[in-house]
Amino acid sequence: MQQEGLKKEVFIKRQVLKRGTNEDYSTTQDVHRSRTSVKFDSTTKGWTGGVHMGVLKALTISGSGSYSSHTTEGSQEITTEATTFHCPPRMKCWSEIWIPYLKLTGTCTIEASSICGMFKGNPCSYKMVWNSFKTPHGLRRIKVREYSGMPFVDYGHCYIDTWHQQVCPPNNAKGHKLDKNCRAVYAVMEGEQPYSEEHWFTSPIDPPPTITGYLAGEYLLGSKDQTYDPHRSSNRYRNGNDWTTYPGYPTLNISGWKHEKPKIIGVASVPGGGACYHLDTQEFFCPGEQGEAKYYTDRKRYYAKPKGAPEPTPEDIARFMKTGSSN
């Protein structure tokens, strides 16, 4: 039996074990999952064999198998131990079990065989011999096919002749033909059971806050008292004078906000900096600073805006110094 052009593909099958929802705004809740049995299917067409982990808890996978002309379907069961995971405020939470599988695909060489009574032989390899058999009119002697490995099968008894053309390639006495659709899918084993990992996921209940403006290095969330500061390491949301977090969104995607080009409204000097220009966005622009952090406020100190945000050009600065307006 031969396997040609064998391809290997590793993929993951996932199954949800437990779900939970925490509707509280401030308290983390525990989600308990009891001992669980999980079944995973395994289907084979073309090979029988197995796949094992080469290294514990590392996807170094080896697979081998011998050819089989049958399609087999079965399932394997995994028992997972009880566990508890934490669900943050205003979050949907769930756990999944992940099992790696190895898929083998390729072309196989099929060798035809048949069984009749106690004999097993090749229906594609035969020779013509004389044989006598009884009829109502006496013995009749004709030439029949004697198949390889089946020398004593009576003519017509196993009906091998009737399906010979279906299983035997033309002009191939050995009965070999190619099957280009050999396929096998194996769960990767670790010892006596499939290798598995449990993973935990969360998804916010609420939609993200909506950005409505920009001012002094912060993004407005409906008003000047509700803002988001992307440069803080934590508690990036401001509510009045208090900084806090927003359930489900410790960071906010600001890439969709389109910054307008700010206008120069004055000249100023800032601590540790050279000439800076006061902008109508209530921040200072210091073009002489090294690097990307060219903006300044007393609270934030120096910071950078997102790439692509327009800034005053040398022409804008020259125009303001001459006319008092950057327009």
* Class by SSE composition: mainly beta
**Helical element count?**
2
- Mean pLDDT equals 77
Note the run of SSEs as H and E.
EEEEEEEEEHEEEEEEEEEEEEEEH
| Low-confidence regions | 44-73
Q: What is the CA-based Rg, rounded?
A: 38 Å
* Overall 3D shape: elongated
| Residues in helix, % | under 10%
The CA-CA distance between the termini, in Å, is 81 Å
Instruction: Classify the beta-strand content into a percent band.
Output: over 45%
Largest sheet: 6 strands, antiparallel
Overall number of strands = 23
Structure overview:
The protein is mainly β. It folds into four domains: 3-110 and 181-204, no CATH class; 113-173, no CATH class; 208-258, no CATH class; 264-323, no CATH class. Helix content is 6%, strand content 57%. It is built from two helices and 23 strands. The chain has helices at residues 160-167, 314-323; strands spanning 3-22, 29-33, 36-55, 58-80, 83-87, 91-111, 114-116, 119-135, 138-148, 176-187, 189-190, 193-194, 197-204, 213-215, 218-223, 226-228, 237-239, 242-244, 264-269, 275-279, 284-285, 295-297, 301-303. The strands form six sheets. Strands 1, 3, 4, 6, 10 and 13 form a six-stranded antiparallel sheet that branches. A hairpin with a 2-residue loop joins strand 3 (36-55) and strand 4. The model is unreliable at 44-73 (pLDDT under 50).
